[in-house]
Design brief:
The complex is a heterotrimer of chains A (222), B (283) and C (293). Chain A has seven helices and no strands. Chain A has 222 residues and is mostly helical. In chain A, helix 1 (3-19) packs across helix 2, helix 1 (3-19) crosses helix 6 and helix 5 crosses helix 6 (162-213). Classes of the chains: A mainly alpha (222), B alpha/beta (283), C mainly alpha (293). Chains in contact: A-B, A-C, B-C.
């Protein structure tokens, strides 16, 4: 058996093995589950070493004699004190560094990400030479109304009582309806995504695996 | 009579799950074996990605961040393939990289090797693979200042500085377009917050259909030049590059699977509505 | 400051100097940690963690917000080493800090693997129910580790037509024959579950549910080719074109979904900013933060 055929058969057995869980929980699917986790762990270590640590840490430290790279594992290995009650605080020390930098990154990213989002809210609400009334109403007015009502839905600081509060409450209700429409759109997309994954696997089983020994199936492929 | 009728409508709501599974499998298998091809027209979002690729100056690279793995391969795999076709057809040099999960870098490399061979494109000259680089924002912020040092070795373990196409590539100004292909939320925010929003590097994306709705605001604000939405976006890109392939088949099959799901929802609701009406009448 | 730091961090001139520096650095670091552990009480440790957290965030935030100059580094007046790019005093540190943090982070790879090995090692050692699955976990991990690294160190083939070394074939088998299809198949199960869930749970009980369903139907049909085919009789331009299913689906996504999502985005932005501030200033409370000492 040549390597390509072995790969096809192994992949088909693995796929069908996983699908046995659709009938019910069983030893075959459990076994494949564990094999997957094992392969995943092994692969992660290989790629962390081969494409990160070797080129960016080991080679500079050993071959370029940049001795200060020794501090990277010293700091990185502090994470492993998470398993020790006595030295746990050292793990928290290095975690604190990463939490702090994560916060720092968010401060940097805040304006580049969100200020264009704010600018883009300001759309023309009157027709002119470049945009007709139909587009203004069906797009820009609608956009403004949905944005404001949805934001009012998330505004919890004022109780929905009194004149202003009741108006806010009505706006929040409308916002909830618009959110439902957005969630419906998300649901539609989710269905599309999930079905795609299954179609991808069936394409493999029919066109590639069965097609490897029954040419008729291969001919039905793209 | 009422009892029997109520039972009938209740049964509408209680189709065993195995039947639903089998129906779905049957529809998918039927459409793969006996396809009914339907036309696919590119959307504005997909056209935006294609135009962004075509607009990249010849002296700059396209950076394709393939942050996906087998869990989303049916969508992101064809997206990657179609995008590589678009790059090579437009004679643009591109680099692949991966921030997470590491499986994506090998899957994307296999695709790139196959597609590049079709065009006679050479590794290191027309395209390269920077490999999996751990560290998300740490990688991006350093890469913006110094690409060779941040990347270190390529996918095959050789220093990226040895690759002919990397001559003169110093920092983010050497990149003419970043395309993010992913099924993971939040990576886009890193690209926009640390690269696109700061250095003005054009950015486009290809997402799984699940996460795409959440990123339409970034398309509207022009922070993204375009967006491929799941297998639909991939199929539309296949149309633009005149290479109908996997995604085109997926979308045709998808049509009938969606019809099935809509029918199932309607059947379930009919059962629910009639059973409720009968229940009220009985009460 | 950067110049003096750079001169202190020069590469070792000889291999012997490298070994000496490495040993001294490790010994010094261990000594420093031991001293900190011995002499810092819970309060001191908490303060140190808070300080490190603060400095981490401060550096990255300040580098971005401080004014930049092309010729001199603000605010010291030191010349900018790269006058083509505007910079401030902290900018030269960004690249080494980014690379250093990504390398430090890469060392965490063993954390999850260690946990997995602990759990499965116990299963195998104590012959618990399903221990053979745990054994399969170890075998799979070791196989991928060995053949993955082996394939990595094999010389690259000059032409694709050359026969691959057997170690690389085994690696390909593990990757393309098991790892990839197992993950793809596992996630494709979601198609069955979503079909079943849609049928069982998607009920029009309220007006909101009806709206959600209407949007879902339009998107589900509008996004696939059959939607375009169903309304292909309608013109592609003019007012009626709006009612073509693909146009309607696109309109729902772009003009109903987008503003609602932007409202959510704004909420997330403000929430994340507040959360980042709390973490940065060590004001956050919870399992990790309350027990920092």
């Amino acid at each position: 058996m040549n390597p390509e055929t072995a790969i096809l058969w192994a992949a088909a057995v693995a796929t069908l093995g996983v699908y046995t869980i659709l009938y019910r929980e069983n030893p075959i699917s459990r076994l494949f589950e564990h094999i997957f986790v094992g392969l995943s762990a092994g692969y992660l270590i290989v790629f962390i070493w081969a494409q990160n640590l070797e080129g960016k840490w080991w080679n500079p430290m050993i071959h370029e004699r940049k001795w200060y790279w020794v501090f990277a594992p010293i700091i990185g290995l502090l994470f492993y004190f998470i398993y020790s009650r006595r030295f746990l605080w050292l793990a928290r020390l290095v975690m604190g560094l990463f939490f702090g930098t994560a916060a720092g990154y968010f401060f940097r990213e805040f304006f580049p990400i969100y200020s264009p989002q704010v600018y883009a809210c300001f759309k023309p609400l009157r027709a002119d030479a470049t945009i007709g009334w139909a587009d203004v109403i069906l797009h820009n007015w609608l956009f403004a109304i949905i944005l404001l009502t949805v934001m009012s839905y998330f505004f919890f600081s004022i109780p929905h009582e009194g004149r202003f509060g009741r108006t806010l409450g009505r706006s929040a209700l409308l916002g909830r309806w618009f959110l439902m429409i957005a969630f419906g759109a998300m649901f539609g997309n989710t269905v599309m995504a999930r079905i795609s994954l299954f179609i991808g696997r069936v394409q493999f089983l029919l066109n590639e695996w069965l097609g490897s020994f029954l040419p008729w199936f291969a001919q039905r492929g793209p | 009579m009422t009892e029997r009728a109520t039972g009938f409508w209740e049964r509408f709501q209680q189709i065993p799950r195995y039947y639903i599974y089998l129906l779905l499998a049957a529809v998918v298998i039927w459409q793969i074996l006996f396809p009914m091809p339907l036309p696919i027209a590119p959307s504005r979002a997909t056209q935006g990605v294609y135009d962004a690729i075509a607009a990249v100056p010849d002296d700059k690279l396209i950076l394709i961040s393939t942050d996906w793995d087998a869990s989303t391969q049916a969508e992101t795999g064809p997206q990657t393939e179609a995008l590589i076709h678009a790059c090579l057809q437009n004679h643009k040099r591109f680099a692949i990289m991966n921030l997470q999960p590491p499986m994506g870098v090998k899957l994307a490399n296999d695709i790139a090797e196959r597609v590049a061979a079709e065009y006679g494109a050479e590794y290191g000259v027309d395209w390269c693979n920077w490999g999996y680089k751990y560290g998300f924002d740490n990688v991006l912020i350093a890469m913006a200042k110094n690409i060779p040092k941040t990347i270190g070795d390529d996918f095959y373990g050789d220093p990226v500085t040895d690759l002919p196409m990397m001559k003169g590539v110093q920092d983010i100004s050497s990149i003419g377009l970043v395309i993010e292909i992913t099924g993971l939320a939040a990576i886009t925010e890193y690209w926009i917050g640390l690269i696109q929003g700061v250095y003005g590097t054009p950015f486009a994306s290809a997402y799984t259909a699940v996460m795409a709705p959440g990123y339409y605001p970034f398309l509207d604000s022009d922070q993204m030049k375009g967006m491929l939405v799941g297998a639909k976006g991939a199929a539309e890109m296949e149309v633009l590059v005149h290479r109908p392939a996997r995604a085109t088949v997926i979308m045709n099959v998808q049509s009938w699977a969606h019809v099935l799901i809509i029918v199932l929802i309607i059947v379930g609701n009919l059962g629910y509505l009639f059973a409720r009406t009968r229940g009220r009448q009985r009460a | 400051m950067w110049a003096s730091l750079q001169s202190a961090l020069q590469p070792a001139p000889t291999a012997a100097a490298l070994v000496r520096n490495l040993i001294l650095s490790v010994a010094g670091s261990v000594l420093l940690l031991a001293v900190l552990h011995r002499f810092l009480g819970p309060r001191g440790r908490r303060w140190l963690i808070a300080f490190v957290t603060f400095i981490g965030g401060l550096y990255l935030g300040l580098e971005y917000f401080l004014p930049v100059r092309k010729q001199i580094l603000w605010p010291t007046g030191i010349p900018n080493p790269n006058p083509e790019r505007a910079a401030n005093l902290l900018t030269p540190g960004i690249e080494p800090v980014g690379i250093m943090l990504s390398v430090i982070g890469a060392f965490t790879v063993g954390l999850g693997v260690y946990s997995l090995c602990q759990v499965h090692g116990r299963n195998v050692a104590q012959r618990r129910a399903g221990w053979h699955n745990s054994l399969a976990f170890f075998l799979a991990m070791l196989a991928m580790l060995i053949f993955g690294l082996w394939a990595h160190y094999l010389p690259k083939l000059d032409t694709p037509s050359e026969t691959k070394p057997w170690a690389e074939s085994v690696y390909e088998l593990l990757f393309n024959g098991l790892f990839m299809p197992l993950q793809a198949a596992t996630f494709s199960l979601l198609a069955f579950y979503i079909a079943s869930a849609a049928y069982r749970a998607f009920r029009i009980r309220t007006a909101e549910a009806a709206l959600m369903m209407a949007a879902a139907f339009i998107v589900m049909i509008g996004q696939v080719p059959i939607g375009a085919w169903l309304t292909s009789a309608l013109p592609t331009t003019g007012t009626v074109a709006f009612f073509r299913l693909e146009a309607l689906g696109e309109w729902v996504m772009s003009w109903l979904n987008t503003p609602a999502q932007r409202g959510i985005v704004f909420g997330i932005a403000i929430g994340a900013l507040a959360m980042s501030l709390r973490i940065w200033l060590s004001l956050e409370r919870g399992t990790f933060f309350s027990e920092q000492g």
